[in-house]
Amino acid sequence: MNSLSKDLKNLLDNLDLVDMRFIINQTQIYAHKLVLAASSYFWKTQLFGNKTRNNEDIFTVVLSDIDPIIFKKIIEYLYTREILIDSKTVDLLMEYSSQFGIENLQHLCSEYYQNNLSSENCVKIHNLACKFKDENLKKISLKFLENHKLKENQVLKNSFLGMEKNDVTQLLLLNNLHGSEEIKLLAGIIEWSENYCSKLQMQTSPNSIQFVLEEPIKFIKFEYISAFHFLNLMHRKQYLTDFLVHKLIEYFNNSQLNDSIIKENVLQLEFMESKEKSVLERLILWGQHFCLDNNIDINQENLSKYISPFSSMLNFQAFTPTSLVQLLETKIFPFELILENLITNIQKLISSKTEYFIKSEKKPITSISEIKVLLIETNHFSRNDIISSIKSTGIQNVDSVDARNENVTFEQMKNYDCVFTFSYNSYKNPQEIGNALAIYVESGGGLVLAARDTLNTDDTCRIEGRIVSDGFLPMKYGKPIDDKPSFLGKILKNDHPILKNVKSFDGGECSYRIEGNATNGSSAVAFWNDGSVLVAEKTKQSNFGTVIVLNILPYSDKVCSNYWRSSSDGMTLIANSVVYVSRVEKNGQIMK
């Protein structure tokens, strides 16, 4: 029996809605005029005659805020139990079937969502499951979220609006929801809290919203939120400024309590800030004397007026978070300036979880054979091909790690002279690897990055974190190019060590690369023949390591015939890049 037949049988068995009956030998049989008339011309004539009904005789229901096309599909479904559900109609069908209590249709929509879950829609579908109290869909979508990396822009401002408080907390517990879009998570739960207060008919006051936010905000990872985005959010939600700053500090203090390495970093920073504190004290003392000498009241407003113009004399990044909070409370220096430095320092202290302020002490390298290289890859089948390229000019020590399954930390990197990384599949945690690479470069380590998928703007395989956001790389994310064979083109620096013995480079049939130019503070070394950058370098500060971007897919046609031609000088290009950033010394000078 199909679902329509079941519904009609239930209708027949439910005497509340019958509107006629037959009496046969003292037996009563109940029925519905409309069902009989729709099924039999005889009964239509008997029950309704042949007259045409006027619109005035029709029972009318006026609906607003309903899409008439979708509603007509629902009515047709009720009569036929047939309906076409697709990505354009499913959201409204789910909403209306829930609104009008059509459980069979709601179940069909739920099945559609389950069969079409992806990394691009899983947050939205989980939200709908929570909104419509679909426990099975909620369970399935949550499991999907646990096991898949999200596409960029999955976390939207309204991602939580249909959820109960426990649903929001449960979602925020998922590690792979956190990362480069953390600001959207924070904005999303703030938007949710405002709507949740209205839903509970609570007064939408700062106190009510802060009460609702108290538990969910504990799961926000503030180290992933830039100072710019944090300040921008506070401009839009000024009533939450004190609350958000308090939660930021609370988060940092909890992180410090639970991590001995962060504690150690803070101790290092306390040592560094002593010099800056003496400058600060002298500046405040000068401000007080200036007020006295000019018969001006010594108060916060006047001290701020005369001292804050000299803020540039202080390096606020050398202050601990505790000291910066104290400066915030004095209200002498510009609020945004201190808060920006507070956020930046907290980010560095938490995201590094290692000896951020201690430069690695390594013995100088005096020959190429001494260079130690760590290959961080996500495509195991091509590993040996890249290792062969790296070793082609005499390097002997190359270790590799599969970053699909392992988070690579600074502790692992710091004993190597060069890190070479590329992605073909997703990094297990692209944010944490990017943060660790930034610390490694700040500690003097050299980095070579193959850009094709690692910096592909459309790819879930790309690297993230501070190595990108803090401007270490000589190229930004770009769109992929693989439309035709391309070759080594214009060379800007013929005598550059990376190009030593590189006479040609043939990218192969597809010549995989990304669009893009060198970033500010970077130098292009060579281009493809179509004008896109092939090699670029950047050294952000003199005591930092050098970063090279090779705008290629780093494996040769020995792996696949589409890749760069091994008959050209690709192996030499890769090996030279590794040697260059490894800073081999000769007679106390870096070899160039």
TrEMBL record:
Organism superkingdom: Eukaryota
InterPro entries hit by this protein: BTB/POZ_dom, Class_I_gatase-like, SKP1/BTB/POZ_sf
Cited Pfam families: BTB
CDD domains: BACK, BTB_POZ_ZBTB_KLHL-like
Domain (BTB) ranges: 18-87
Protein name: Btb/poz domain-containing
Lineage: Eukaryota, Metamonada, Anaeramoebidae, Anaeramoeba
